[in-house]
C-alpha cells in the first residue's frame, strides 16, 4: 500500500475543461485543497459539542456513461435529529436500521434513543453540459465533483471516502490520510479526515504530482496536467508565500497537507 498526496477544499465552483482534444484551450484554472482555514480555539474555551455523525462513502465510476455509483453508510449518534438531502441523486435503496424506506429529496430523521444506522445506494450522472459542469464532470479524461453529488446531512460529519478510479489517475479529496492500492486497471484510493465537514469534494485525473515540504510534518502538493507541468513550481512558490502571510496573521497552519490542483 502506497501513501499518496492528499487534501481538503475551498468549494470553489469552476468550469471544467478536461478533454483538451475536444475543447479549445482555456486559461489555467485551479482548485486549492487544504485543511479548512479555521482559527484554532483553546480546549478550555471551546464549547463542548455532541459527537458528529460518521459518513462512509464508497464510489465507483462508469466514465463513458458519465455515471457515478455510490454507497453511503451513516452512523447518527443517539439524540441527534438530522435531515438527509438526496437532491440530484437517483436512490436505489435507502435503509434505516435494516428497514427499507421510501424516500423523497429530503429525509427527516427525528432523534432516537440509540445510534441510528443509514445505508443508501445511489447513482447520478454528469454528462458534461454547461449546467452539469457547475456541479460536476465525469468523463474518460477526468472527474470533478463539487456540488450535490452525494447524500448530505444538515450537520457536519466525519467522512471517510473510498474511490475506485482508473489506475493512471491520481485523486484528491478532503483528507489528512490517503492510501491506495492497484489491482488490474483499477486504483482504489482511501481518504480519511477526522475533522467534521458539511460535504466532500472529489477530483481525479491523469495528473503529474509533485511535492515539497512547507513545515514540520507538512507538505505542499501540486497536481498539474502534463502539458502544464512547467507551471507547477511557480504556483508552489506563490502558495508558500501566501501560507507564510497567512501564518503571520492567524497562527500556524494546522493541517498536514495543502494542494494546488489544476482543474
Any chance you could write out the topology, listing elements then pairs?
Blueprint: E1 2-3, E2 30-34, E3 54-62, E4 67-76, E5 82-85, E6 90-96, E7 99-100, E8 106-109, E9 116-125, H1 130-133, E10 136-139, E11 142-145, E12 152-153, E13 157-166, E14 170-173, E15 177-183, E16 186-197, E17 202-205, E18 208-215, E19 218-224, H2 232-250, E20 257-262
Structure characterization notes:
- By secondary structure, the protein is mainly beta.
- The chain has a single domain (2-13, 27-36, 55-262), classed as Immunoglobulin-like (Sandwich), CATH 2.60.40.
- Helices cover 9% and strands 46% of the residues.
- It contains two helices and 20 strands.
- Strands 1-15-16-13-3-4-9-6-7 form a nine-stranded mixed beta sheet, with no helix packed on it. Strands 2-20-19-18 form a four-stranded mixed beta sheet, covered by helices on one side. A four-stranded antiparallel beta sheet has the order 10-11-17-14, with no helix packed on it.
- The longest helix is centred in the last third of the chain and has 19 residues, at 232-250.
- The two termini are 27 Å apart.
- Mean pLDDT is 83; it is low at 1-27 and 34-46.
Amino acid at each position: 500500500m502506497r501513501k499518496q498526496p492528499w487534501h481538503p477544499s475551498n468549494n470553489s465552483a469552476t468550469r471544467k475543461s478536461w478533454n483538451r482534444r475536444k475543447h479549445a484551450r482555456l486559461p489555467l484554472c485551479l482548485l486549492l485543497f487544504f485543511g479548512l482555514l479555521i482559527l484554532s480555539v483553546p480546549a478550555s474555551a471551546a464549547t463542548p459539542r455532541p459527537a458528529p455523525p460518521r459518513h462512509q462513502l464508497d464510489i465507483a465510476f462508469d466514465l463513458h456513461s458519465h455515471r457515478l455509483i455510490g454507497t453511503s453508510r451513516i452512523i447518527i449518534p443517539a439524540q441527534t435529529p438530522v435531515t438527509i438531502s438526496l437532491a440530484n441523486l437517483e436512490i436505489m435503496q435507502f435503509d434505516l436500521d435494516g428497514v427499507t424506506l421510501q424516500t423523497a429529496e429530503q429525509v427527516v430523521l427525528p432523534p432516537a434513543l440509540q445510534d441510528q444506522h443509514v445505508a443508501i445506494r445511489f447513482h447520478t450522472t454528469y454528462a458534461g453540459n454547461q449546467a452539469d459542469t457547475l456541479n460536476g464532470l465525469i468523463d474518460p479524461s477526468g472527474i470533478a465533483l463539487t456540488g450535490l453529488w452525494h447524500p448530505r446531512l444538515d450537520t457536519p460529519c466525519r467522512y471517510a471516502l473510498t474511490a475506485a478510479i482508473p489506475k493512471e489517475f491520481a485523486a484528491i479529496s478532503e483528507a489528512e490520510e490517503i492510501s491506495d492500492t492497484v489491482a488490474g486497471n483499477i486504483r482504489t484510493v482511501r481518504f480519511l479526515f477526522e475533522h467534521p465537514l458539511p460535504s466532500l469534494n472529489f477530483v481525479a485525473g491523469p495528473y503529474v504530482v509533485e511535492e515539497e515540504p512547507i513545515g514540520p510534518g507538512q507538505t505542499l502538493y501540486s497536481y498539474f496536467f502534463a502539458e502544464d507541468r512547467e507551471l507547477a513550481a511557480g504556483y508552489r512558490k506563490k502558495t508558500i508565500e501566501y501560507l507564510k502571510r497567512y501564518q503571520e496573521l492567524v497562527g500556524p497552519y494546522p493541517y498536514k497537507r495543502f494542494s494546488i490542483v489544476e482543474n
